[in-house]
Design goal:
Elements: H1 2-23, H2 31-48, H3 59-63, H4 71-85, E1 96-97, H5 112-122, H6 132-135, H7 138-150, H8 166-180, E2 189-192, H9 195-206, E3 212-218, H10 222-230, E4 234-239, H11 250-262, E5 266-273, H12 285-298, E6 301-305, H13 322-328, E7 338-343, E8 357-362, H14 366-378, H15 384-393, H16 404-430, E9 435-436, E10 445-446, E11 449-450, H17 454-462, H18 467-479, E12 481-482, E13 484-485, E14 498-501, H19 509-528
Parallel strand pairs: 1-12, 3-4, 3-5, 5-6, 6-7
Antiparallel strand pairs: 2-8, 7-8, 9-11, 10-14, 13-14
Length: about 525
C-alpha cells in the first residue's frame, strides 16, 4: 500500500511540476496549488523511508518462534519448487510433508455428511430445488434447514454473536453432555477460529507481565511458547517422563512450581495436552484426578488442550475430558477454574482450513467472564462455517439417520488407517540404530529419540544448528521427508528428537519407511566413522 501511494504521489508531483514549468510564463499557480505541491514534495521522502526495522519492532515478536512452520519447511518448499522447475534435480521425486497435522493436504477426504451440510448452508437457495434431494442425504438437508434457522439472516456470510451462534452453542453443549454425562451450559462456550485463538485469548487474560508464568509440558506444542512470549509472560516448563511413555508426574509439577516461585514467578495456569502433542500419549483417569487435585490445591487455572480427543488408537486407553473428571470428583464451578479446548482441525475430520473450534470455560466469576466476552467481542465473531462444523463434530449422524452408516464407515476407515500407519512407523523407527520411539497411543504424531554420534553433534555445532535440526536437514535433502526437529518443541537438555506425523497416505508409508531406513544407515555410517 505504501508503495502504491508513493507511486501515485510521484506521478502527481511530476505532473504538477511539468504543469508549473510549461505554464509559468503565462499562468500563475494559485496559493492553494502551491501549498499542495509543497506538501506532496515533503510527503514523498517520508513514504520512501522505512521507519520500521528489525530493531524497532515489538521484541515480543522476535522472541516468538513456531518450529512447525520453520526453517526446515521453508527449505522443503524451495526443494518442491526445484522439482517442479527441474524434474530429476534431486534424489527424490516428491516432498513428503510429515511435519504438520494437516490431514486433507495429504489426501484425507472430508466427511461427506459434514460437507453436505456446509454446502447447503453456504448456498441455501438449492434447498428448494427438487434435484437437491437426489444429490444430498435427507438428514443433511434437514440439518441445514435447522442450522439456517439459527443463523442471522440465514446467511453464513453474516456476523454472529461474539460467543458464536446461540443455537449452535446449544448443540455443542448437548454433545458435551452426551460425551461426559454431566450438564454443559451453552453460555460457557466461546466459538473460535480453531483452538489457537482461544489459547491466545486465555493468555491475554492471564498474563500481566513477565512475572506471570504458565506451566507447560516439555516437549510442548509451540503454540504455547509462542503465545506466552507474544503476551509477555514466562513459560514454566515441566518435563514429561519419556521412560514411562511420556508420563506426567505430579512430583515434577510440584518441583517446577516451587522453582518458579523461588524466582518470583507467579504461576497462573497449568497446560495439559491430552492426547499429547508432539508425544502421542493418552492420560489415564487416575493421573487426571491427581492433576485436578494439584490445580485445586495450588489455585491454578487448568488449560485442557483436548483437540485430539477422537484420536486414540490403543484398546487399553480411552479419552476422558477434564470436565468429566472434575465433575466426577464432585468439583463444581466454585472449586476449580477449567478451560477446555476443542477444534475441527484434528480428530478424524481434519478440517484445518475451515478454522473452527471452541473453548468451554467453567469456574470463573461473572466479572471475569465479562472480560473474556470483551476479548471475544474485539474479534467480532469467528467464521460461520467453522461454527457450523464445530456443531457437527459434536452432533454427528445418529443411528436411524440416513447418513449414519456412511458416516460411521468413513470415521472407522480413517481412524483404523491412522492406527495402522502409527504402528508401522513406530516399528520402523524402533528398528533403527540409536533410535527409540514410545508407543503412539493417540494424536497424530510420533516423537522418536535419536542418539546422535559425537561427530554429528560436532558437525551441527560447526554449522551453528541444533543436532536434531542438522539431522532433519540431512534427511530432507536426501529423501524429501519433512520432519520437525525436537528442539522446536523443547526437550530434556542433551537429548535429541524429531516429530513425524502419521498422516501421509497409507500406501506411501512403506516408501517413507524405506527412504528413512536407508538414509539413517548412511547418516550413521558417515558420522560414526
Amino acid at each position: 500500500m505504501r508503495r502504491f501511494i508513493s507511486h501515485k504521489v510521484k506521478n502527481l508531483i511530476t505532473k504538477t511540476t511539468s504543469y508549473t514549468i510549461s505554464s509559468s510564463s503565462s499562468t500563475s499557480i494559485s496559493p492553494s496549488s502551491t501549498a499542495a505541491l509543497r506538501f506532496l514534495s515533503t510527503l514523498q521522502p517520508d513514504l520512501m523511508a522505512t521507519p520500521i526495522t528489525i530493531d524497532t519492532i515489538n521484541p515480543k515478536v522476535l522472541k516468538c518462534e513456531y518450529a512447525v512452520r520453520g526453517e526446515i519447511v521453508t527449505l522443503a518448499q524451495k526443494l518442491q519448487q526445484d522439482l517442479k522447475d527441474n524434474p530429476g534435480s534431486h534424489p527424490f521425486d516428491e516432498i513428503l510433508y510429515c511435519n504438520i497435522g494437516n490431514p486433507q493436504s495429504l489426501a484425507q477426504q472430508p466427511i461427506t455428511f459434514f460437507r453436505e451440510v456446509l454446502a447447503l448452508c453456504d448456498h441455501p437457495s438449492i434447498l428448494d430445488k427438487s434435484v437437491t434431494h437426489g444429490l444430498f442425504s435427507a438428514d443433511a438437508i434437514e440439518r441445514a434447514f435447522q442450522i439456517l434457522d439459527q443463523i442471522p439472516g440465514r446467511a453464513t456470510g453474516a456476523y454472529s454473536h461474539s460467543q458464536g451462534i446461540k443455537g449452535l452453542r446449544d448443540t455443542i453443549a448437548s454433545g458435551i453432555e452426551a460425551r461426559d454425562g454431566f450438564p454443559a451450559d451453552p453460555n460457557d462456550l466461546f466459538l473460535t477460529d480453531g483452538a489457537s485463538p482461544a489459547v491466545h485469548m486465555m493468555m491475554q487474560l492471564l498474563i500481566r507481565s513477565e512475572n506471570d508464568g504458565i506451566l507447560c509440558p516439555i516437549p510442548q506444542y509451540p503454540l504455547y511458547s509462542a503465545s506466552i512470549a507474544l503476551h509477555g509472560g514466562t513459560l514454566v516448563p515441566y518435563y514429561l517422563d519419556e521412560q514411562t511413555g511420556w508420563g506426567l508426574e505430579i512430583s515434577e509439577l510440584e518441583n517446577q512450581l516451587k522453582t518458579a516461585k523461588s524466582k518470583g514467578i507467579d504461576v497462573r495456569a497449568l497446560v495439559v495436552i491430552n492426547p499429547g502433542n508432539p508425544t502421542g500419549q493418552v492420560l489415564g483417569e487416575a493421573n487426571q484426578r491427581d492433576i485436578v487435585e494439584f490445580c485445586k490445591r495450588e489455585g491454578l487455572v487448568l488449560l485442557a488442550d483436548e483437540v485430539y480427543q477422537e484420536n486414540v488408537y490403543v484398546p487399553d486407553k480411552k479419552f476422558h475430558s477434564f470436565k468429566k473428571i472434575t465433575r466426577s470428583m464432585g468439583y463444581g464451578e466454585k472449586d476449580i477454574s477449567l478451560v477446555s479446548f476443542q477444534s475441527v482441525s484434528k480428530g478424524f475430520y481434519g478440517e484445518c482450513g475451515k478454522r473452527g473450534g471452541y473453548m468451554e470455560i467453567t469456574g470463573f466469576s461473572p466479572e471475569v467472564r465479562e472480560q473474556i466476552y470483551k476479548l471475544a467481542s474485539v474479534n467480532l465473531c469467528s467464521n460461520i462455517s467453522g461454527q457450523v462444523l464445530a456443531s457437527l463434530i459434536m452432533s454427528p449422524p445418529k443411528v436411524g439417520d440416513e447418513s449414519y452408516e456412511s458416516f460411521s464407515a468413513e470415521k472407522e476407515a480413517i481412524l483404523s488407517s491412522l492406527a495402522r500407519r502409527a504402528k508401522t512407523l513406530e516399528d520402523a523407527l524402533n528398528s533403527l540404530e540409536g533410535v527409540t520411539c514410545n508407543r503412539a497411543e493417540g494424536a497424530m504424531y510420533l516423537f522418536p529419540r535419536i542418539n546422535l554420534p559425537d561427530k554429528a553433534i560436532k558437525a551441527a555445532e560447526a554449522a551453528k544448528t541444533a543436532p536434531d535440526a542438522f539431522y532433519a536437514k540431512h534427511l530432507l535433502n536426501a529423501t524429501g521427508i519433512v520432519v520437525v526437529p525436537g528442539s522446536g518443541f523443547r526437550q530434556v537438555p542433551g537429548t535429541w528428537h524429531f516429530r513425524c506425523t502419521i498422516l501421509p497416505q497409507e500406501e506411501k508409508i512403506p516408501a517413507i519407511v524405506t527412504r528413512l531406513t536407508e538414509f539413517h544407515k548412511m547418516f550413521m555410517d558417515e558420522f560414526c566413522g
